Structure of Acyl transferase/acyl hydrolase/lysophospholipase:
Amino acid sequence: MCEVCENSTGAIWFCNVCISSFCETCWAAQFVHRKARGGALHEKTNPDIAEKVNNVLSPPTDDRVREQLYKADEVTSWFGVVRPEDNAPPVFQDYGRFEELMAKTDPVRKKPSFMEQWAEVGRDRRTPSLVSFVGQTGAGKSTLVKLLIDFATEGSQHYSTPVVGPRGAYLPSSEDVHLYLDPRTTESPGPMLYADCEGLEGGEREPLGAMFRRKRRTDSSKEAQQATKAGKVIFERELEWASGPRARSREFAVTNLYPRLLYTFSDVIVFVLRNPRVIEHVFERLVQWAAAAIETSSNQPVLPHAVIALNASENNIDASFWDVKTNTETILKDLALTVNRNETFKKWAQFWRERGKSIDSLLDLILCYYSSIQIIRLPADGRPKLMAEQIEQLYSGTLSACIAARMARNRVRMLLDVEDLHSYLQEAFNHYSGTLESPFDFVQASFRNSPIPPDFGGNILKLALSVMGNYPKMDARRIFSELSYMVASCIMLDSARHKNKGMLSWSASQILPKYMNHLDDALENFCDQHWPCEFVNSKTGVRCVNVRSGHTKGHQSEDGKVFAAGDYESKFSWKRNSAGFRNKVYACLVELLQELSQRLQDGQSEEETAPHIHKTLVLNNFFRRSTPDTMLSQDYSPLTSHTACFCCLFGQAEHFLPCGHVLCTECLRSYGHQISTYEFDIHGCPIEGARNRRGPLWTVQLHPKSAGVRILTLDGGGIRGIVELEVLKHLEDALGGIPIQRFFDLMVGTSTGGLVALGLGVMHWGVDKCIEKFESLCDEAFTRRVGSSLPVVGSFIDYYHHSKYQTSTIESALKKAFSEDLLLFGGRRRADYGSPIKVAVTATSQAGNKTYVLGNYNSSRSDQKPSHYHFQRPEAIAAELKIWEAARATTAAPRYFKPFHHEPALKTYIDGAILHNNPVRVADAERKRLWPDSSIPDLFLSIGTGYSASLTRNMSENKATVERGVFNHGRQLYKILRNNMEQTLDCERAWDDYFASVATASTKLFCASRFLRINPDVGSIPALDEKDKMHDLRKTVQASLRRNLRIKDIARQLIASSFYFELLDISESEVDGRFLVQGTFYIDHASPDAHLPWDEN
């Protein structure tokens, strides 16, 4: 409304000098608006813009109001360093902010129903860009972030913004690094995230936000205590390098740790300074900040872009300087020669000149650290219209830089989506918590986070990398020369297996084109992303470790030091060597086809001859040539993959041998001795040949194609796992004592159910032994620390250790129960551990938003991979989980036990019950991937850990509602872990929803006989750790099951499901048109000699 005529219609303008609002008529009537005079410029400004600017630049000063603002801002903390008051080492903490923001804005997860949360939705393919705001304390970083967000927010939209420090404050505003969403790109393919970093040169002064939080911690009121408990730490690790007072200081973390993380992963660095008197000081800080981080990562795909924000610039400067391009060009031109005058510039210019870089201007120096630079001025208070215009320029420049960075990442195949970026960040958090000296290597991280495709080309690449790992000094040309004969032989073998018609009359030129793309992909990927630069320092002999796609900083050594400038150098490249590799493979294929043709003419069969040629002439020789003599004498097998069959390079690693190699099913059939239709003996290893001929006889059983699929799932529930074991014992008794595990093809367990599944299916324990082990394990694991049972004191002890029970105790108990060395999949093992039942357990990421499935098998190569969980299978044996570690991961219940960190794979797990306390949907998805031709299982049995009939669904219905995204549901399940009633109802709800999804109206009766759940009524439900109640609980279950007639019915179904029919022939009678069906009935759980052959009409 016009403050003169009080008119509210038409355009209303705010005057920045008059501090009043006017309509068009009254604006023109003001003398100072009609005639320009000296002094401040009167600007027409939209009142809404003026109000937003004023609200940001004039933050509240009342301590109570500010305390509430800081309290609300705590949830935006991304990561930081906590310094314990007892002088213990500082701890790095990740608060899960990145995962939370991505889950909340995932376009495919908008307010899902309980059932829809577990649907197989597509992976979040968005590729976020990180924009980091750094600079001196009080420079206005938080102000700029808040303005960027507020100007992009419309209507009732609400986005978190930083707390702006009060005017004249001498203390830093916020501590650590906070993360905020850019409203304009939130749901775009490339969302921008603003990281607001704690200010430089803040010294050891405690930031205002930290002061208010400490005040709440010491406040005894209930409200304050609840606020203090609201924060969530999803990853923490002691800073191993923080050994002295200086390294433990706040300033050290801000100037050494945070730059390493932000420089490494940011697409844009916005360096904010407040009205600097000498502009070159800005560039000094920009260079010094980057110099602290540039040598702490290697193979970094893209250097960040730089934006210098000169905040609170004088309002009366030349108008042309408000233009970013003009301002940037003018300043860089004026400062060009300071590179030879300024001491800081001279130091770093000399650093690069000594490494062969030409540094003739300040811009040349800046571009050693950044991909580009922009310089933007932001006005001081009093010009809201200009402020809005400059903020828009800042946004446009930042967005264009992010797009350029994403395009550059895409060119080198390092454009990370949400899941990939999260994984790389977690690895970097872990790496820099352990050391600030050794660099974070993007190539090594890619092995764990960006799996190589599981096709022929991908498997060629895996084998090439394995050879390179065995022979670090072998050049790339020789690696692919050795590979060419192996690849040609695999092509010959694959062609024979698929019985290409007239193969003998085919020439190599007719066969090879089918595989050519795979050869090109393997070689190109190897050259671009895995083969290091061949530049060697002539004085020191040090070789560059950067690959082609990560050669952004020049030549770096293993310790990250840049020892020379220059581009990637290698005599071996895809363009130069692809034709040679193809020709070598072609020549080898011609030779092998001639050998095959000659042997077939001598009367040998193609099915036996091709594998024999592959093994004796190629495979064994390749293994010997590609393995150093020192490795041949060791007990383990060096050329080993847990994802690819290194025997044929086409199949998936499925059947592990005593030596540690893993074969696909096709190779098992080729090199094993067939005992029966689906059972093979294999003596020795076809890959190692003579070296392993004396190995033990190994028997492998395959799942019959005609047999049905039987699934067992086991809920989580702590000590209530004894309920599941009693159910299984009664079933086993009803089966006449036949081991219960023989009646199932797949077992999937969560938490305590995971322990049972591992014991039965992997360790092959009987139910009685499982009960004995389970009771002993619970007794050891659920033993309190000394002093933790005391009133008041106990809660402080638990809080300090972040868990109720001691980690070493449960880990010792698990090692004793499951063995300390036996791997979950692969590795060397005894013959009596062959052909295990497929077993999987669930675990959850430490963020609580992703389920991991840990199995003793390899999940199939399905194009439709479920996105609601990730099947964990590392490539290398060194990163494989041991059985006890899988048990530890699935049982790491928050606040009961600490998360389990698996150092070799750099993964941290918590209890699988967070997202899948009843793992029926995981089991069903795995069933479809393992046996895609089986539309419906013969039997799907779900066993719970007990319920109480007195509980009703509506007791927790209100708590089952989720706000938005998986992350919020993860928070809810943390509560469920602490509430026995909710946990029980959650498992029942999961079963009901799953059953409703598979049983339509027409098939409900049919499904009711195949999809079964047993969950005995146990009356009062004990807590997860009430081990003293386990004996009484067991007695209650035994009494309940004795009255349960379903046990015998299910036992009969299990027996019936064990029979399957193998069709031999179908013929039609010429007399009456009837069909005569002939075949054999087999029983799946018994030995081959126990089958019952019948001719069936």
Observations:
- The longest strand covers residues 1059-1068.
- The chain has four domains: 12-45, 51-101+127-157+171-238+251-441, 453-531+570-701, 710-954+973-1058.
- Residues 384-411 form the longest helix (28 residues).
